[in-house]
């Protein structure tokens, strides 16, 4: 689907005009819109689940947990705290500005653009919008064209529930996204890969538009020999092969102490079969690859590798079973590119210190994981590894805590959201000082004198 550039510009201008009228600024409007979005998700659960199944083969349980349920939890948290977030924050006023008072007033940015991603098409489009809405902005939502069923259901439902003067969904391919990026939005929020992230940032620079880039990278997972191996394998299998590995914070590769490699791999294979059965490709709990191009890319990662678990794929059903490769060449594509699929490299190391050194020599990841029961090793991980998020003795579970910010660092992204952090991302925190006329110190006014300078030095 494509859309005329004049139509896109007209939509943008109408949203700007709507924002200028000020109705999005009130608590009552924001709360009502959050209520409406909550109804959209609950009243249309079946249609949303069907779209996710069609696009990605997601089971109803996985789709509800990672998409619909995640969004409902986010909305409830936002509604609970919104009035407090909107309040001005009082700050101290120095003696030179007395009598007076100072505060920081959050205000909406204006009209924002949210470009969603295909791997979690509802969550990664609507979670940023929840934050933008809570902050009082108008928004254009651009869902990914690679998940067409999910994009279509959002395009159909959002106008029925939300204020059409404040939010519009625009479907389309990269040409539509390119056209949108020429407009002077007040903020652009993009979720996706590094290559397109650079394009978004370059386009935004032409209008001096601030951006939030939620990218990805190769999220490492470190396994200590002393860990609870059964639980470790269970949690890694869940984190890696949810959504068939198409998750930006999935463990991209595992660094395991050589002394426990055999037991780890045995447990990994056991858990794959336990969670997805002997034939994962036919499991109702296992998803599919988004399209043939991505499946071909994933198949290419296996060339010349030591495949120790899985490896089979079926182009007709767009499936690749959970696959593990052992000690890949560090210079091979599977270790140079974000995998974003069901292939898990396992790399043997002599110690956890060697594993941490391996991570530190590479780009900062979106997430990093450690499985260890040693407090000193846990602290070493937190202190030495720079990552968007760190999770110890589990995978991905930090996403369930709205009190934690989510975002990348370095090449894994910039900016953050979830909960109050998302509200702040889509707000301008305006400095305000109010002063009185009843007392006016003459020290700052000309003409100057030695006595004035003496007193100023005491006050400043």
Explained architecture:
By secondary structure, the protein is an alpha/beta fold. It has 2 domains: 5-215 and 410-432, Aldehyde Dehydrogenase, Chain A, domain 1; 220-400, Aldehyde Dehydrogenase, Chain A, domain 2. It has helices spanning 5-20, 27-43, 45-56, 60-86, 123-134, 148-161, 174-180, 194-206, 229-241, 261-276, 292-300, 333-336, 352-360, 375-384, 419-425, 450-459, and strands at residues 89-91, 100-108, 111-115, 138-142, 167-169, 187-191, 211-214, 220-223, 253-257, 307-309, 313-314, 319-320, 323-326, 343-349, 367-371, 389-392, 413-414, 427-435. The strands form 4 sheets. The chain has a 7-stranded mixed beta sheet, with helices on both faces. Strand 8, helix 9 (229-241) and strand 9 form a beta-alpha-beta unit. It is globular, with a radius of gyration of 25 Å. The relative contact order is 0.13. The mean pLDDT is 96.
Query: According to CATH, what is the topology of the largest domain?
Result: Aldehyde Dehydrogenase, Chain A, domain 1
From the N-terminal CA to the C-terminal CA, the straight-line distance is 62 Å
Architecture of the largest domain, according to CATH?
3-Layer(aba) Sandwich
What gyration radius follows from the Cα positions, in whole Å? 25 Å
Unreliable spans: none
Task: Give the integer mean of the pLDDT values.
Answer: 96
Could you tell me the strand content as a percent range? 15-25%
Helix/strand/pairing category: alpha/beta
**CATH superfamily name of the largest domain?**
Aldehyde Dehydrogenase, Chain A, domain 1
Overall 3D shape? globular
């Amino acid at each position: 689907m494509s859309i005329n550039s004049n139509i896109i510009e007209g939509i943008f201008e109408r949203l700007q005009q709507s924002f200028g009228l000020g109705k999005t600024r009130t608590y009552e409007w924001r709360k009502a819109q959050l209520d409406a979005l909550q109804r959209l998700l609950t009243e249309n659960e079946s249609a949303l689940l069907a779209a996710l199944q069609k696009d990605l083969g997601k089971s109803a349980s996985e789709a509800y947990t990672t998409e619909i349920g995640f969004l409902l939890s986010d909305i409830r948290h936002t509604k609970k705290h919104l009035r407090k977030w909107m309040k001005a924050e009082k700050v101290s006023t120095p003696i030179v500005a007395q009598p007076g008072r100072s505060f920081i007033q959050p205000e909406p940015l204006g009209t924002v653009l949210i470009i969603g991603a295909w791997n979690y098409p509802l969550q990664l489009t609507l979670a940023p919008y929840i934050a933008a809405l809570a902050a009082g902005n108008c928004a254009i939502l651009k869902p990914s064209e690679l998940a067409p069923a999910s994009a279509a259901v959002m395009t159909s439902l959002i106008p029925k529930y939300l204020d059409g003067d404040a939010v519009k969904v625009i479907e389309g391919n990269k040409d539509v996204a390119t056209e949108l990026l020429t407009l002077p939005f007040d903020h652009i929020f993009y979720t996706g890969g590094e290559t397109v992230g650079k394009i978004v940032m370059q386009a935004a620079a032409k209008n001096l538009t601030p951006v939030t880039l939620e990218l990805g990278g190769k999220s490492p997972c470190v396994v200590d020999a002393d860990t609870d191996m059964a639980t470790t394998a269970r949690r890694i299998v869940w984190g890696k092969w949810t959504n068939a590995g198409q998750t930006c914070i999935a463990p991209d590769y595992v660094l395991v102490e050589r002394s426990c490699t055999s037991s780890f791999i045995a447990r990994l294979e056991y858990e794959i079969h336990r969670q997805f059965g002997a034939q994962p490709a036919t499991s109702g709990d296992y998803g599919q690859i988004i399209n043939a191009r991505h499946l071909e890319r994933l198949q290419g990662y296996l060339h010349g590798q030591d495949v120790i678990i899985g490896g089979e794929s079926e182009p007709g059903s767009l499936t690749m079973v959970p696959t593990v490769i052992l000690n890949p060449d560090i210079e091979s594509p599977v270790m140079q590119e974000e995998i974003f699929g069901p292939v898990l490299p396992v790399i043997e190391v002599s110690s956890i210190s060697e594993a941490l050194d391996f991570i530190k020599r590479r780009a900062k990841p979106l997430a990093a994981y450690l499985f260890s029961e040693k407090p000193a090793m846990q602290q070493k991980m937190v202190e030495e590894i720079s990552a968007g998020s760190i999770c110890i003795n589990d995978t991905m579970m930090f996403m369930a805590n709205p009190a934690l910010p989510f975002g990348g660092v370095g090449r894994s992204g910039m900016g953050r959201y979830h909960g109050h952090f998302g509200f702040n991302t889509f707000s301008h925190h305006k400095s305000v000082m109010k002063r009185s006329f009843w007392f006016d110190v003459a020290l700052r006014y000309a003409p100057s004198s030695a006595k004035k300078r003496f007193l100023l030095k005491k006050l400043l």
